[in-house]
Amino acid sequence: MSMLKDSSPMKMKRQSILFCMRYPDDQGFVWRTVSRLRDMVAGNLGEFDCYIAFPELTGRSVHQFEHLKPIELDGYTLAARDKEKLSHFAQEQKLAAIVYMSAMPSTLDMAFLKSLKVATITTENDSFDHTQRNSLVKKAAKFILRRILHRQIHDLHIANAVKQGEWLASFAQIPKDRIVVAPNGIDCTRFIPAGDTSAPRLDPALRWVICVSQARPEKRVDMIIRTAARIMKQEQFSDVAFAYVGDGAMAPAWKQLAADLHISDRFHFVGQQQDLLPYYQAATLMVHAAKRESFGLVLAEAMACELPVVACAAAGPMEIIDNGVTGTLVGLNDEDGFQAAVEFYLQEPTIAMQHGKAGRERAEQRFSIHRQARDIANAIRQVVNKDRD
């Protein structure tokens, strides 16, 4: 009896893409948007198996994934255990590329990553100081290291804004052919203006000025608190209150400042919230005083909810806000101008409404998360295909 040999082709294992997150999977806030974007990117990379790595899978994940498989691995600190796990994963899953969130090469063990023979990519979301200048010696050193020797660089740096891309090329001396700009986007089908059925999280009897950020020094919520104190002294603004949504190291100091200025009853610290939509929908105005901001997702989200915005003219807000049309930009250190802009919108509700509607239109036209997902997926695909060739 003869044995027939199976001539059907063996099914080849597909290559994989690994997206690395910096925080455990129970961290929400803007990280929900960041992780959702990665899920959408994976949806555009159907020819790959896509995974997302968190330093810790807590069992309390705030993320829901359709196209990504979560794994527990710290791709940033890369301790010995994580290196072993990543090496095994790369071999078993035919890893083609690792996509980081905000990981400059100088913060990673690039020698180890290159030993895996996979492409490394980073989406640059961090806020850099655009006023920094290199000394001639430092600029020359970066130029030689990154542009001539091609060390301490990823295969691709995806900037989240035009100014971010310019900073990477000029200050960090990343070769321009390793930089792609894919401006940040938001889901305008989710971030929508308040409707009749919206459930307010803030007292509807008051007009709320909202600020949303992590509690880090460069976010300068202290500037907003001082502005609020001066505004609250005026009788015409007796129905105005402020709310800060966020948390972090600076929160206790900011709470103490509000107490020292005797405005704790009208400047509310609501903490970090997993869902920002109800707060946007309850507000009259969005303010942002950060002196460094690569983009400013919360500004685009607020605009999508038809809020006019007042922000300091850092790099990101300058790309998001159409000054005098969707909001007002003020000088980085112009505290009086910041107060005047806030008061203007509180005194001119018709103009505030017009700027809010214009902001919604701008968000829909320019800041689509679907467009961003396609752009990032195409950039990743080009890098992987180039390595195949």
Overview of this structure, please?
This protein is α/β, with parallel strands linked by helices. The chain folds into 2 domains: 16-185 and 369-388, 3-Layer(aba) Sandwich (Rossmann fold); 207-366, Glycogen Phosphorylase B (Rossmann fold). The protein is built from 13 helices and 13 strands. The strands form 2 sheets. Strands 3-2-1-4-5-6-7 form a 7-stranded parallel β-sheet, with helices on both faces. Strands 10-9-8-11-12-13 form a 6-stranded parallel β-sheet, sandwiched between helices. Helix 9 (297-304) packs across helix 12 (349-366). The longest helix is centred in the C-terminal third of the chain and has 20 residues, at 369-388. The two termini are 46 Å apart. 44% of the residues are buried. Residues 1-8 have low confidence and may be disordered.
What is the element layout, followed by pairings?
Elements: E1 16-20, H1 30-43, E2 49-54, E3 69-72, H2 80-92, E4 95-101, H3 110-115, E5 119-124, H4 136-148, E6 156-159, H5 162-170, E7 179-181, E8 207-212, H6 221-232, E9 240-245, H7 251-260, E10 267-271, H8 277-282, E11 285-288, H9 297-304, E12 309-312, H10 315-320, E13 327-330, H11 335-347, H12 349-366, H13 369-388
Parallel strand pairs: 1-2, 1-4, 2-3, 4-5, 5-6, 6-7, 8-9, 8-11, 9-10, 11-12, 12-13
Helix pairs in contact: 1-13, 6-11, 9-12
